[in-house]
Specification:
By secondary structure, the protein is α/β, with parallel strands linked by helices. The protein has two domains: 14-51 and 284-382, Aspartate Aminotransferase, domain 1 (Alpha-Beta Complex), CATH 3.90.1150.10; 77-281, Type I PLP-dependent aspartate aminotransferase-like (Major domain) (Aspartate Aminotransferase, domain 2). It is 41% helix and 17% strand. The protein has 13 helices and 14 strands. The strands form three sheets. Strands 4-10-9-8-7-5-6 form a seven-stranded mixed beta sheet, with helices on both faces. It has a four-stranded mixed beta sheet with strand order 1-2-3-12, with helices on one face. α7 links the parallel β8 and β9. α3 runs parallel beside α4 (128-137). The longest helix has 21 residues, at 284-304. The protein is globular. The termini are far apart. Bound molecules: pyridoxal-5'-phosphate.
Length: 383
Protein backbone atom coordinates (compact mmCIF):
# COMPACT_ATOMS: atom_id res chain seq x y z
CA UNK A 1 0.00 0.00 0.00
CA UNK A 2 1.40 3.42 -0.94
CA UNK A 3 1.45 6.19 1.71
CA UNK A 4 -1.37 7.88 -0.22
CA UNK A 5 -3.52 4.72 -0.19
CA UNK A 6 -2.72 4.28 3.50
CA UNK A 7 -4.09 7.74 4.17
CA UNK A 8 -7.32 6.91 2.33
CA UNK A 9 -7.66 3.68 4.29
CA UNK A 10 -7.14 5.56 7.56
CA UNK A 11 -10.03 7.90 6.67
CA UNK A 12 -12.26 4.89 5.97
CA UNK A 13 -11.22 3.16 9.20
CA UNK A 14 -12.04 6.32 11.15
CA UNK A 15 -15.56 6.30 9.70
CA UNK A 16 -15.91 2.65 10.73
CA UNK A 17 -14.89 3.41 14.33
CA UNK A 18 -17.35 6.33 14.47
CA UNK A 19 -20.15 4.08 13.13
CA UNK A 20 -20.35 6.37 10.10
CA UNK A 21 -19.10 4.05 7.35
CA UNK A 22 -21.57 3.61 4.50
CA UNK A 23 -22.21 0.60 2.36
CA UNK A 24 -24.21 -0.16 -0.74
CA UNK A 25 -26.91 -2.51 0.53
CA UNK A 26 -28.20 -5.49 -1.49
CA UNK A 27 -31.75 -4.57 -2.46
CA UNK A 28 -34.62 -5.66 -4.65
CA UNK A 29 -37.52 -3.25 -5.21
CA UNK A 30 -40.97 -4.78 -5.68
CA UNK A 31 -43.32 -1.79 -5.54
CA UNK A 32 -43.66 1.71 -4.10
CA UNK A 33 -44.08 0.17 -0.64
CA UNK A 34 -42.13 -3.09 -0.79
CA UNK A 35 -38.41 -3.69 -0.88
CA UNK A 36 -36.05 -6.56 -0.08
CA UNK A 37 -33.01 -5.59 1.96
CA UNK A 38 -30.26 -8.13 2.56
CA UNK A 39 -32.74 -10.92 1.74
CA UNK A 40 -35.48 -9.61 4.07
CA UNK A 41 -38.72 -8.37 2.52
CA UNK A 42 -39.75 -5.05 4.10
CA UNK A 43 -42.32 -2.26 3.91
CA UNK A 44 -40.32 0.61 2.46
CA UNK A 45 -40.34 3.83 4.47
CA UNK A 46 -37.11 5.19 3.04
CA UNK A 47 -37.77 6.20 -0.54
CA UNK A 48 -38.39 9.60 -2.15
CA UNK A 49 -40.99 8.13 -4.49
CA UNK A 50 -43.68 10.25 -2.79
CA UNK A 51 -46.36 9.74 -5.46
CA UNK A 52 -45.52 6.10 -6.10
CA UNK A 53 -44.63 6.88 -9.72
CA UNK A 54 -41.10 5.46 -9.86
CA UNK A 55 -42.33 1.93 -10.55
CA UNK A 56 -44.38 2.95 -13.60
CA UNK A 57 -43.27 1.29 -16.80
CA UNK A 58 -42.69 3.25 -19.94
CA UNK A 59 -43.08 1.98 -23.48
CA UNK A 60 -40.21 3.66 -25.32
CA UNK A 61 -41.25 5.64 -28.35
CA UNK A 62 -38.00 7.35 -29.17
CA UNK A 63 -34.28 6.75 -29.02
CA UNK A 64 -32.23 6.16 -25.90
CA UNK A 65 -29.35 8.60 -26.22
CA UNK A 66 -29.25 12.36 -26.59
CA UNK A 67 -26.07 12.19 -28.64
CA UNK A 68 -24.49 15.46 -27.53
CA UNK A 69 -24.83 18.33 -25.14
CA UNK A 70 -27.88 20.56 -25.49
CA UNK A 71 -26.01 23.38 -27.21
CA UNK A 72 -24.30 21.15 -29.76
CA UNK A 73 -26.77 18.71 -31.36
CA UNK A 74 -28.56 17.43 -28.24
CA UNK A 75 -31.64 19.65 -28.35
CA UNK A 76 -33.95 16.74 -29.20
CA UNK A 77 -37.72 17.00 -29.55
CA UNK A 78 -38.47 15.24 -26.24
CA UNK A 79 -36.62 17.81 -24.12
CA UNK A 80 -38.28 20.65 -26.01
CA UNK A 81 -41.68 19.05 -25.39
CA UNK A 82 -40.85 18.61 -21.71
CA UNK A 83 -39.88 22.28 -21.27
CA UNK A 84 -42.95 23.43 -23.22
CA UNK A 85 -45.18 21.33 -20.94
CA UNK A 86 -43.56 22.78 -17.79
CA UNK A 87 -43.97 26.32 -19.11
CA UNK A 88 -47.68 25.76 -19.72
CA UNK A 89 -48.08 24.04 -16.35
CA UNK A 90 -46.43 26.81 -14.32
CA UNK A 91 -47.68 29.69 -16.50
CA UNK A 92 -46.96 33.34 -15.52
CA UNK A 93 -44.49 33.60 -18.41
CA UNK A 94 -41.96 31.42 -16.60
CA UNK A 95 -39.39 29.62 -18.76
CA UNK A 96 -38.12 26.08 -18.11
CA UNK A 97 -34.58 24.78 -18.38
CA UNK A 98 -33.94 21.07 -17.86
CA UNK A 99 -30.75 19.79 -16.19
CA UNK A 100 -29.23 16.30 -15.86
CA UNK A 101 -30.06 16.04 -12.13
CA UNK A 102 -30.93 18.14 -9.10
CA UNK A 103 -27.32 18.03 -8.02
CA UNK A 104 -26.16 19.32 -11.41
CA UNK A 105 -28.87 22.00 -11.44
CA UNK A 106 -27.78 23.49 -8.11
CA UNK A 107 -24.13 23.27 -9.06
CA UNK A 108 -24.69 24.91 -12.44
CA UNK A 109 -27.15 27.60 -11.38
CA UNK A 110 -25.28 28.80 -8.30
CA UNK A 111 -21.82 28.73 -9.83
CA UNK A 112 -23.27 30.37 -12.96
CA UNK A 113 -24.87 33.38 -11.30
CA UNK A 114 -22.42 34.27 -8.53
CA UNK A 115 -18.64 34.43 -8.47
CA UNK A 116 -15.73 35.84 -6.48
CA UNK A 117 -16.75 39.04 -4.69
CA UNK A 118 -20.43 38.06 -4.58
CA UNK A 119 -22.30 36.59 -1.60
CA UNK A 120 -24.40 33.45 -1.12
CA UNK A 121 -26.68 33.36 1.93
CA UNK A 122 -27.65 29.78 2.57
CA UNK A 123 -29.65 27.96 5.28
CA UNK A 124 -27.31 25.78 7.34
CA UNK A 125 -29.34 22.67 6.50
CA UNK A 126 -29.49 23.22 2.75
CA UNK A 127 -28.75 20.22 0.55
CA UNK A 128 -25.14 19.27 -0.24
CA UNK A 129 -25.54 20.29 -3.89
CA UNK A 130 -26.31 23.87 -2.80
CA UNK A 131 -23.25 23.93 -0.58
CA UNK A 132 -21.09 22.51 -3.37
CA UNK A 133 -22.50 25.03 -5.85
CA UNK A 134 -21.64 27.88 -3.50
CA UNK A 135 -18.11 26.56 -2.96
CA UNK A 136 -17.57 26.06 -6.69
CA UNK A 137 -18.77 29.58 -7.46
CA UNK A 138 -15.92 31.23 -5.52
CA UNK A 139 -18.46 33.61 -3.91
CA UNK A 140 -18.38 34.11 -0.15
CA UNK A 141 -20.63 31.46 1.38
CA UNK A 142 -22.51 32.78 4.40
CA UNK A 143 -24.65 30.22 6.23
CA UNK A 144 -27.51 31.34 8.46
CA UNK A 145 -28.93 29.22 11.27
CA UNK A 146 -31.63 26.83 10.17
CA UNK A 147 -34.92 28.72 9.57
CA UNK A 148 -33.55 31.67 11.58
CA UNK A 149 -34.56 34.64 9.46
CA UNK A 150 -33.55 37.18 12.10
CA UNK A 151 -30.05 35.79 11.78
CA UNK A 152 -30.32 36.01 7.98
CA UNK A 153 -31.51 39.60 8.17
CA UNK A 154 -28.66 40.57 10.49
CA UNK A 155 -26.19 39.05 8.01
CA UNK A 156 -27.84 40.78 5.05
CA UNK A 157 -27.75 44.08 6.92
CA UNK A 158 -24.05 43.62 7.66
CA UNK A 159 -23.29 43.02 3.98
CA UNK A 160 -25.86 45.32 2.40
CA UNK A 161 -23.23 47.30 0.47
CA UNK A 162 -22.23 44.23 -1.58
CA UNK A 163 -24.19 44.45 -4.85
CA UNK A 164 -24.62 40.81 -5.92
CA UNK A 165 -26.30 38.72 -3.27
CA UNK A 166 -28.02 35.35 -3.67
CA UNK A 167 -30.32 33.84 -1.04
CA UNK A 168 -30.83 30.11 -1.42
CA UNK A 169 -33.01 27.71 0.55
CA UNK A 170 -34.55 24.29 0.33
CA UNK A 171 -38.36 24.61 0.37
CA UNK A 172 -38.84 21.34 2.29
CA UNK A 173 -35.69 20.25 4.10
CA UNK A 174 -34.80 16.75 3.02
CA UNK A 175 -33.65 15.33 6.36
CA UNK A 176 -36.08 17.22 8.64
CA UNK A 177 -39.31 17.51 6.69
CA UNK A 178 -39.73 21.10 7.90
CA UNK A 179 -40.29 23.99 5.49
CA UNK A 180 -38.68 27.35 4.83
CA UNK A 181 -40.73 30.48 5.46
CA UNK A 182 -40.80 31.49 1.82
CA UNK A 183 -42.88 34.63 2.44
CA UNK A 184 -40.16 35.89 4.80
CA UNK A 185 -37.45 35.00 2.28
CA UNK A 186 -39.29 36.95 -0.41
CA UNK A 187 -39.57 39.94 1.94
CA UNK A 188 -35.85 39.82 2.70
CA UNK A 189 -34.80 39.34 -0.90
CA UNK A 190 -36.82 42.44 -1.87
CA UNK A 191 -35.56 44.54 1.05
CA UNK A 192 -31.91 43.69 0.38
CA UNK A 193 -32.12 43.46 -3.40
CA UNK A 194 -31.06 39.85 -3.73
CA UNK A 195 -31.81 37.01 -6.12
CA UNK A 196 -33.84 34.23 -4.44
CA UNK A 197 -33.33 30.60 -5.43
CA UNK A 198 -35.69 28.01 -3.90
CA UNK A 199 -35.00 24.30 -4.19
CA UNK A 200 -38.34 22.47 -4.29
CA UNK A 201 -36.79 18.99 -4.65
CA UNK A 202 -38.99 17.48 -1.90
CA UNK A 203 -42.06 19.71 -2.36
CA UNK A 204 -42.55 19.68 -6.14
CA UNK A 205 -45.23 17.13 -6.96
CA UNK A 206 -46.18 16.93 -3.28
CA UNK A 207 -47.33 20.36 -2.06
CA UNK A 208 -49.80 22.82 -3.50
CA UNK A 209 -52.57 22.45 -6.06
CA UNK A 210 -51.53 20.08 -8.86
CA UNK A 211 -48.28 19.59 -6.92
CA UNK A 212 -46.77 22.88 -8.07
CA UNK A 213 -44.72 23.16 -4.89
CA UNK A 214 -44.48 25.28 -1.74
CA UNK A 215 -44.12 28.72 -3.33
CA UNK A 216 -47.21 28.16 -5.49
CA UNK A 217 -49.17 26.75 -2.56
CA UNK A 218 -48.54 30.05 -0.73
CA UNK A 219 -49.28 32.15 -3.83
CA UNK A 220 -45.86 33.82 -3.67
CA UNK A 221 -44.26 32.22 -6.70
CA UNK A 222 -43.79 35.65 -8.28
CA UNK A 223 -41.34 36.60 -5.52
CA UNK A 224 -39.02 33.66 -6.22
CA UNK A 225 -36.52 34.34 -9.01
CA UNK A 226 -35.44 30.75 -9.60
CA UNK A 227 -37.58 27.71 -8.77
CA UNK A 228 -35.59 24.51 -8.89
CA UNK A 229 -37.26 21.11 -8.90
CA UNK A 230 -36.18 17.55 -9.51
CA UNK A 231 -37.80 14.75 -11.47
CA UNK A 232 -36.05 12.25 -9.21
CA UNK A 233 -38.34 12.36 -6.16
CA UNK A 234 -42.15 12.73 -6.49
CA UNK A 235 -41.96 12.53 -10.28
CA UNK A 236 -40.35 9.11 -9.99
CA UNK A 237 -37.75 9.53 -12.73
CA UNK A 238 -34.45 11.38 -13.04
CA UNK A 239 -33.27 14.88 -13.95
CA UNK A 240 -34.22 18.38 -12.81
CA UNK A 241 -35.61 21.68 -14.00
CA UNK A 242 -35.46 25.35 -13.30
CA UNK A 243 -38.43 27.71 -13.79
CA UNK A 244 -37.39 31.32 -14.14
CA UNK A 245 -37.82 34.51 -16.14
CA UNK A 246 -36.77 34.60 -19.82
CA UNK A 247 -33.63 36.67 -19.19
CA UNK A 248 -32.42 34.32 -16.46
CA UNK A 249 -33.03 31.30 -18.69
CA UNK A 250 -30.99 32.91 -21.46
CA UNK A 251 -28.27 33.69 -18.94
CA UNK A 252 -28.18 30.13 -17.59
CA UNK A 253 -27.95 28.68 -21.11
CA UNK A 254 -24.76 30.70 -21.44
CA UNK A 255 -23.25 30.42 -17.97
CA UNK A 256 -24.53 27.30 -16.17
CA UNK A 257 -21.65 24.99 -16.98
CA UNK A 258 -23.43 21.78 -15.95
CA UNK A 259 -26.06 22.52 -18.61
CA UNK A 260 -23.48 23.46 -21.24
CA UNK A 261 -20.73 20.88 -20.81
CA UNK A 262 -22.72 17.72 -20.13
CA UNK A 263 -24.75 15.45 -22.39
CA UNK A 264 -28.43 16.30 -22.64
CA UNK A 265 -30.96 14.28 -20.59
CA UNK A 266 -31.86 11.37 -22.94
CA UNK A 267 -35.13 11.42 -24.93
CA UNK A 268 -36.32 8.19 -23.33
CA UNK A 269 -36.04 9.79 -19.87
CA UNK A 270 -37.67 13.05 -20.97
CA UNK A 271 -40.67 11.17 -22.35
CA UNK A 272 -40.99 9.04 -19.21
CA UNK A 273 -40.82 12.22 -17.09
CA UNK A 274 -43.58 13.79 -19.14
CA UNK A 275 -45.74 10.71 -18.64
CA UNK A 276 -45.28 10.98 -14.85
CA UNK A 277 -45.76 14.76 -14.79
CA UNK A 278 -49.13 14.36 -16.50
CA UNK A 279 -50.16 11.71 -13.95
CA UNK A 280 -48.87 13.72 -10.99
CA UNK A 281 -50.82 16.80 -12.05
CA UNK A 282 -54.11 14.99 -11.45
CA UNK A 283 -53.20 13.47 -8.08
CA UNK A 284 -54.55 16.14 -5.70
CA UNK A 285 -56.67 13.59 -3.85
CA UNK A 286 -53.67 11.32 -3.25
CA UNK A 287 -51.63 14.34 -2.13
CA UNK A 288 -54.34 15.18 0.39
CA UNK A 289 -54.28 11.60 1.69
CA UNK A 290 -50.51 11.74 1.99
CA UNK A 291 -50.81 14.81 4.22
CA UNK A 292 -53.42 13.04 6.39
CA UNK A 293 -51.46 9.79 6.77
CA UNK A 294 -48.29 11.75 7.55
CA UNK A 295 -50.15 13.70 10.24
CA UNK A 296 -51.52 10.48 11.72
CA UNK A 297 -48.01 8.95 11.80
CA UNK A 298 -46.49 12.03 13.42
CA UNK A 299 -49.17 12.27 16.11
CA UNK A 300 -48.64 8.62 17.06
CA UNK A 301 -44.86 9.02 17.15
CA UNK A 302 -45.16 12.04 19.44
CA UNK A 303 -47.52 10.06 21.71
CA UNK A 304 -44.87 7.34 21.93
CA UNK A 305 -42.32 9.95 22.97
CA UNK A 306 -40.08 10.11 19.89
CA UNK A 307 -38.32 13.33 18.91
CA UNK A 308 -39.55 14.08 15.38
CA UNK A 309 -38.24 17.64 15.16
CA UNK A 310 -40.47 20.12 13.34
CA UNK A 311 -41.62 17.98 10.43
CA UNK A 312 -44.52 19.53 8.51
CA UNK A 313 -44.52 17.14 5.58
CA UNK A 314 -44.29 13.53 4.39
CA UNK A 315 -40.68 13.39 5.58
CA UNK A 316 -40.66 12.34 9.23
CA UNK A 317 -37.38 12.05 11.10
CA UNK A 318 -37.04 10.05 14.30
CA UNK A 319 -34.08 11.83 15.83
CA UNK A 320 -31.88 9.59 17.96
CA UNK A 321 -28.77 11.76 18.09
CA UNK A 322 -26.38 8.79 18.47
CA UNK A 323 -25.24 7.10 15.21
CA UNK A 324 -24.87 3.73 16.91
CA UNK A 325 -28.47 3.87 18.13
CA UNK A 326 -29.67 4.82 14.64
CA UNK A 327 -27.89 1.75 13.26
CA UNK A 328 -29.40 -0.48 15.96
CA UNK A 329 -32.95 0.79 15.39
CA UNK A 330 -32.60 0.48 11.61
CA UNK A 331 -31.47 -3.14 11.99
CA UNK A 332 -34.32 -3.84 14.42
CA UNK A 333 -36.83 -2.39 11.93
CA UNK A 334 -35.35 -4.50 9.15
CA UNK A 335 -35.65 -7.65 11.26
CA UNK A 336 -39.34 -6.82 11.79
CA UNK A 337 -39.98 -6.17 8.09
CA UNK A 338 -39.57 -2.39 7.76
CA UNK A 339 -37.02 -0.39 5.79
CA UNK A 340 -36.00 2.70 7.79
CA UNK A 341 -32.51 3.66 6.73
CA UNK A 342 -30.24 5.42 9.27
CA UNK A 343 -29.07 8.91 8.36
CA UNK A 344 -25.80 9.85 10.01
CA UNK A 345 -23.21 12.65 9.86
CA UNK A 346 -22.00 14.13 7.57
CA UNK A 347 -25.46 13.99 5.91
CA UNK A 348 -26.86 15.46 9.14
CA UNK A 349 -25.00 17.47 11.78
CA UNK A 350 -23.06 15.78 14.59
CA UNK A 351 -25.32 14.28 17.25
CA UNK A 352 -28.30 14.49 14.90
CA UNK A 353 -28.38 10.88 13.63
CA UNK A 354 -31.87 9.69 12.79
CA UNK A 355 -34.12 7.34 10.96
CA UNK A 356 -35.67 9.32 8.16
CA UNK A 357 -39.11 7.92 7.44
CA UNK A 358 -40.61 9.10 4.18
CA UNK A 359 -44.22 8.36 3.36
CA UNK A 360 -45.78 8.03 -0.04
CA UNK A 361 -49.34 8.01 -1.38
CA UNK A 362 -49.49 4.20 -1.29
CA UNK A 363 -48.82 3.97 2.45
CA UNK A 364 -51.91 3.42 4.59
CA UNK A 365 -52.68 2.77 8.25
CA UNK A 366 -52.21 -0.93 7.42
CA UNK A 367 -48.53 -0.13 6.85
CA UNK A 368 -48.18 2.47 9.60
CA UNK A 369 -49.84 0.73 12.54
CA UNK A 370 -47.56 -2.34 12.48
CA UNK A 371 -44.55 0.00 12.12
CA UNK A 372 -45.73 2.01 15.12
CA UNK A 373 -46.13 -1.23 17.11
CA UNK A 374 -42.54 -2.20 16.33
CA UNK A 375 -41.27 1.24 17.33
CA UNK A 376 -43.18 0.97 20.61
CA UNK A 377 -41.72 -2.50 21.20
CA UNK A 378 -38.21 -1.15 20.58
CA UNK A 379 -38.72 1.53 23.22
CA UNK A 380 -39.93 -1.06 25.77
CA UNK A 381 -37.05 -3.46 25.06
CA UNK A 382 -34.56 -0.62 25.30
CA UNK A 383 -35.71 0.10 28.84
C1 LIG B 1 -32.98 19.56 -1.58
C2 LIG B 1 -32.32 18.72 -2.63
N1 LIG B 1 -31.82 19.31 -3.72
C3 LIG B 1 -31.22 18.61 -4.70
C4 LIG B 1 -31.10 17.24 -4.61
C5 LIG B 1 -30.39 16.49 -5.68
O1 LIG B 1 -31.33 16.00 -6.58
P1 LIG B 1 -31.00 14.76 -7.51
O2 LIG B 1 -31.14 13.53 -6.68
O3 LIG B 1 -32.00 14.85 -8.61
O4 LIG B 1 -29.60 14.95 -8.01
C6 LIG B 1 -31.61 16.57 -3.50
C7 LIG B 1 -31.48 15.11 -3.40
O5 LIG B 1 -31.74 14.47 -2.44
C8 LIG B 1 -32.23 17.32 -2.47
O6 LIG B 1 -32.71 16.74 -1.37
Amino acid sequence: MTPFEKKLKERLDKREIQKLKRQIIKQKIYSSTEIEIDGKRCINFSSNDYLGLAQQTYQAQSQIGGGASRLVTGNHQAIQNLEKWLEKFYGHGLKALVFGSGYLANLGVISGIVSRGDLVFSDKLNHASIIDGAILSGAKHIRYNHLDYQHLEALLEKHKEIPNKLIVSDATFSMNGDCADLAELVRLKKKYDCILLVDEAHSAGVLGPQGKGLAHSLGIQGGVDIHLGTFSKAYGAYGAYVMTNPLMKEYLINFARTAIYSTVLPPIICEAILQNLRKAKSMDKQRQNLISTSLYFKEKLIQQGWDIGLSETQIVPVILKCSKKALILSKYLNQHGFAGIPIRPPTVQNNEARIRFSLNVDHSKDHLDPLLDVLQKFLKEEI
